[in-house]
């Protein structure tokens, strides 16, 4: 059964803030490096850091010897957690609006619900949960605005949209599969999945963009930051949330990210706040409250 505590809420709020701010940092990094190599550098630095921490813990992973099914599931999770969805998004976003890509990521929460119902013990689908997640999703759509469903006129737009939604499905499925692993060391699990993702992304970057480019010191520092904070650190928090509070609770992050992205864009880049912000925020909070009513009641001392 999922155990949702005050610590779980703090971790999810932190993830939303970190990933919401990541878009701003990526814009800076893209001034000095190509997109695929940016992702490869992020996951490469993150893997190196997590392997070092994992080594300090004696390279512990599972408490019992690994079975073939566990090894295959681990490889599957590593691919679906970062590498495959990144490549799908990178390709798909050539043909769709950024708004549609944002809505696709918010859809992760809706995809997780039925998957968790059938695949994770204790994550039963209820009318209240469904209503809460749908209300939150509507809030995200309102925040992003009508551009989310505007056509780009690209001949490959249908396939681009399919790629974005498939990426969302990858994130959802990896969360559910991660929850179903036997007892495992969180740092070890994070290190292994990052290594698997790094191998795939680096190979894809080399194939798509050639050898790694030279970067200036500013870009290098930004890449190290991206590898340490929103990749290594945030992915470790993601593992911890999924393993304790469950994939459905973890999916609440997907409703936070666009909110933080808009707010931080206004605070740091002086971008205009959309007039729909308060309405969207209200719907998202109502959705979270409704879907997590039991957890909130326990948190604040209810019966």
From TrEMBL:
GO cellular component: membrane
TM helices/strands, residue ranges: 9-30, 36-59, 71-89, 95-118, 130-146, 158-176, 188-208, 220-240, 252-270, 276-296
Start and end residues of each EamA domain: 10-144, 162-290
Topology relative to the membrane: Multi-pass membrane protein
UniProt keyword terms in alphabetical order: Membrane, Transmembrane, Transmembrane helix
Acyltransferase in keyword set: no
Compartments, as annotated in UniProt: Membrane
Similarity section: Belongs to the EamA transporter family.
Protein name according to UniProt: Putative DMT superfamily transporter inner membrane protein
């Amino acid at each position: 059964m999922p155990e949702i505590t005050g610590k779980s809420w703090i971790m999810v709020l932190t993830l939303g803030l970190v990933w919401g701010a990541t878009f701003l940092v990526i814009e800076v990094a893209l001034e000095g490096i190509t997109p695929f190599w940016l992702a490869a550098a992020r996951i490469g630095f993150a893997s190196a850091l997590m392997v070092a921490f994992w080594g300090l813990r004696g390279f512990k992973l599972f408490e019992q010897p690994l079975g073939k099914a566990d090894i295959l599931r681990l490889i599957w999770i590593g691919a679906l957690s970062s590498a495959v969805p990144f490549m799908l998004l990178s390709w798909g976003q050539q043909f769709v609006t950024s708004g549609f890509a944002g809505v696709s990521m918010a859809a992760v929460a809706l995809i997780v619900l039925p998957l968790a119902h059938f695949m994770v013990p204790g994550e039963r689908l209820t009318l209240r949960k469904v209503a809460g997640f749908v209300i939150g999703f509507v809030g995200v759509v309102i925040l992003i605005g009508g551009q989310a469903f505007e056509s780009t006129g690209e001949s490959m737009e249908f396939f681009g949209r399919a790629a974005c939604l498939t990426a969302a499905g990858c994130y959802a499925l990896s969360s559910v599969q991660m929850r179903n692993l036997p007892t495992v060391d969180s740092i070890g699990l994070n290190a292994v999945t990052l290594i698997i993702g790094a191998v795939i992304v680096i190979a894809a970057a080399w194939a798509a963009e050639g050898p790694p480019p030279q970067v200036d010191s500013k870009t290098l520092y930004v890449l190290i930051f991206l590898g340490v904070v929103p990749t290594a650190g945030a992915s470790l928090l993601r593992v911890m949330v999924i393993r304790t509070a469950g994939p459905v609770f973890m999916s609440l992050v997907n409703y936070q990210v666009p909110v933080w992205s808009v707010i931080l864009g206004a605070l740091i880049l002086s971008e205009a706040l959309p007039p729909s912000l308060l309405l969207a925020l209200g719907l998202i909070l109502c959705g979270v409250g409704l879907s997590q009513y039991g957890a909130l009641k326990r948190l604040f001392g209810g019966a």
